[in-house]
Amino acid sequence: PNPTSDLAQLQFEVSEAQRLTIRLHTMGGAFLDNIFDGTVEPGAIYQVDVDAGSLSSGLYQLRISGGAHSEVRKLLVTP
User: Fold this and answer.
1) Is there a contact between 76 and 3 (Cβ–Cβ < 8 Å)?
2) Dihedral (C-alpha) 30, 35, 39, 40: value to the nearest 10 degrees?
3) How far apart are CA 77 and CA 1, in angstroms?
């Protein structure tokens, strides 16, 4: 994971049109925030900002879900 102390940027692209959600969770699985919830189209690169300024230092999960695809990326927040 890339460390950040204030703002992280998540880039992604999809192969088919779909509804996509990105949610921020603690490593223990507790839901913290809905980062993105919308329809995305193929052929575009999307960039979503994650405001980490109010988070405590530590490791978090970004859970990305859309269609039949699901992925977890880690976010490291530093002081």
Assistant:
1) yes
2) -110
3) 10
